[in-house]
Amino acid sequence: MIGTLTAAILLVLSAAPTQELPAAKDVIGSERDAKEVPYSLPREAAGPAIDQAAAFLVGEIREDGSWGDDLPTLEEVGFALSTFRSWRIASHGIVCMALASLDETPERRAALERAVGWLCDCELPRRDSDWDIDYVWSSLYGFTATIELLQDERFQVDAWRARLQKRANEFLAVLKKHQAVSGGWAYYDDPPFSRQPTWATSFCTALVLPALHAAPTVGIEVPEKVEERALRYLNRCVLPNGAYSYDLDPVVRLSGVEHINLMEGSLGRTQVGNWARRVTGDRRVTDEVIREGLEAFFKSHGFLDHARMRPIPHEGFHSNAGYFYFFAHYYASQVISLLPEEEREGWHARLRPHLIKTQRENGSTSDFLDSEYSVNAGTAFLVLALREGLSAAPARPDTPR
Question: What's the superkingdom here (predicted)?
Fold first, then answer.
C-alpha cells in the first residue's frame, strides 16, 4: 500500500505543469566556453536582453498575479512542504523588484500591480518542525521587496502603502523570530531544533541588511539590536583574503586548495557582503576593497560558470553551487554602483556578457534546475543586474574596459 501511494504521489508531481524552457540561444558563443564570450559588451546590448526577459515575466504571470506553483519536482522531494511555497514567494519578491525597475508600459504596469497585490495578500508559509527552515527565504526577499516597493512613488498612495507596510511587518516578525543566536539568518537548523535557530550564513544576513537599514524611512520600525546583531555577525565572517566565510567559524580553517572559504568559493558572498556593509555605513569597505572583490570575481568567474545548472548543491569546485550564479551577478551590479561614477560603466560592461550569454530564446534563464521558482528568480536577477548597469553614465572613449 505504501509503495502504491508513493508511486501515485510521484506520478502527480511529475505531471505538474512546467514552463516551456528552450535551449540557451547561441548569440555570443557557448556559455561553457569562456574563450567565445566577449570581454565586455556595450550598454546597447542590455536593452534587447532586458526586453526579452521582461516579456517572459509579463507573459507568464497568472490571473491572480503570481508565478509558478507550490509543487516540488522529482529532483526536490525531501524538503518540507512549506519550503516550495517559500521559494515561490521569495522568487516572487525578486520578480516584483525586477518589474518595478523597468521602463514602464501599460502591460508592465498592470503586471507589476497584480504581482504586488499577490505579494501583499498571499498566504504566508509556516515553519516545519525539523531541520528545514527554508521558509525564512520568503521573508528575506519578501521583506527586501516590500521595503523597495515602499520607496517607489507609484506605491506611496495610501491604499498601497498600508498593504505593503502590513506585509513588511509580517515578514519582519518572521525575521525577528528566526534571527539566530549568533545574529544572522539561514535556512536550515541543527539539532536540537529550537524556536530560535542555531545556524546562520553570511550571505542570507547580508542580503537583508540594507532593507533593515532603510526600513525606518518608510515607516517600518526595526529594533536597533536586530540590525546591530546582524552587522556584528557579518563582520565576523570577513576573512583576511577578502572572502566571506559561508557561516561563522570562530576558528577558521582553510583546509586544502579547494576550500569553500577561499576567494574562489566566495565570489558571490564577497559582492553581497561588501555591498551590505558599505550601504550600512562601514567605512572599512573602501573603493579599493570593492575593486579587489570585483577583480577576483572576474578572474575566477570560471568557477561560477562550471557550477551553473549542475543539479547537485555545491557540486562545483570550491563547493560552488549553481544557484549562486545570478545571486552573485546581481550583487556584483549593486556593488559596482557604489564606485565612483566614472568607473561604473567599465565594470558593468564586463558583467553584461556573463548575463546575456545565459539567456534562452524565450527570454528566460536559470542557474539551478528548471523549477519555476528558479527560472523566475534567475530571469528577474538578470533584469535587475542589467538595469543597474544602465544607471551608470556612458563610458568615455578613453575609459578602460
Answer: Bacteria
Q: Is the pLDDT of residue 122 over 90?
A: yes
What pLDDT digit, counting tens, does each position of 334-358 carry?
999 999 999 999 999 999 999 999 9
Q: Cα separations (Å) of 396 from 150, 335, 339?
A: 35, 21, 16
DSSP state of 283: T
- C-alpha dihedral sign at 250, 254, 255, 259: positive
Q: Is the CB of residue 28 less than 8 Å from the CB of residue 37?
A: yes
CB-CB neighbours of 74 under 10 Å: 9
**In 168-230, at which residue ranges do the beta strands (DSSP E only) sit?**
none
Which of these CATH numbers, 2.40.50.140, 3.30.2010.10, 1.50.10.20, 1.10.10.10, describes 27-390? 1.50.10.20
Question: What does the pLDDT read at residue 244?
Answer: 98
pLDDT in the model for residue 293:
99
Q: Where are the alpha helices (DSSP H) in 259-397?
A: 267-279, 287-299, 301-307, 325-336, 341-356, 372-390
pLDDT number for residue 37: 93
Domain boundaries, given as residue ranges, for the chain: 27-390
pLDDT digits (tens, 9 = 90+) for 187-237: 999 888 899 999 999 999 999 999 999 999 999 999 999 999 999 999 999
**Strand partners of residue 238:** 244
Q: What pLDDT sits at residue 140?
A: 99
Identity of the residue numbered 137: W
Write phi, then psi, for 79 (nearest 5 degrees).
-85, 165
Nearest 10 degrees: Cα torsion 168, 335, 33, 373: 0
> Hey, CA dihedral for 184, 281, 274, 337, is it positive or negative?
positive
CA distance 219 to 178: 22
Exposed e or buried b for every residue in 321-335, given b needs 16+ CB within 10 A? bbbbbbbbbbbbbbb
Provide the pLDDT for residue 1. Answer: 42
What are the grid coordinates assigned to 317, written together?
A: 569546485
399 or 298, greater pLDDT: 298
